[in-house]
Design goal:
The chain is α+β, with helices and mostly antiparallel strands. Strands 1, 2, 3, 4, 5 and 6 form a six-stranded antiparallel β-sheet that branches. The longest helix is centred in the N-terminal third of the chain and has 20 residues. Keywords: Hydrolase. This is Acyl-CoA thioesterase. GO terms for molecular function: long-chain fatty acyl-CoA hydrolase activity. InterPro entries: Cytosol_ACT, HOTDOG_ACOT, HotDog_dom_sf, Thioestr_dom.
């Protein structure tokens, strides 16, 4: 799994227990999945369709740095299925695993749009063309 993004846990990211608010973490995961998918599918109209069950395994506190990892599981006709792991860089513990995030490529009318992709492409390889 490649870890693309790091976030610094700040006071505004905390819950009443003084640990990372789950809703904030889910926002970061959704944003990371969207950015990753938009780049892979080369379509800015790519949206979240499904996020599987989540189970918090540990947390983070103010000042900790977390990192978000994304891995492609499957290319569908108009979708991209990912899995995600978030870990605490300071404690080295996994915070959460998300087994499936389904992102869908849309056309101008908001309908699923086939993307024609079958494998991961890296931007550096696209630039050589």
């Amino acid at each position: 799994m490649r870890f693309h993004t790091r976030k610094w846990v700040k006071p505004e990211d905390l819950n009443p227990n003084g640990t990372l608010f789950g809703g904030r973490l889910l926002e970061w995961i959704d944003e990371e999945a969207a950015l990753y998918s938009i780049i892979q599918l080369e379509n800015p109209k790519t949206v979240t369709k499904f996020i599987s069950e989540i189970d918090f395994q540990s947390s983070a506190k103010q000042g900790d740095i977390i990192e978000i990892g994304i891995e492609v599981i499957k290319f569908g006709t108009a979708s991209l299925t990912l899995k995600c792991e978030v870990r605490n860089k300071m404690t080295r513990k996994t915070i959460i695993m998300v087994d499936r995030i389904v992102m869908v490529s849309l056309d101008e009318d908001g309908n699923a749009k086939p993307h024609g992709k079958t494998e991961i492409e890296f931007v550096k390889n696209r630039l050589k063309e």
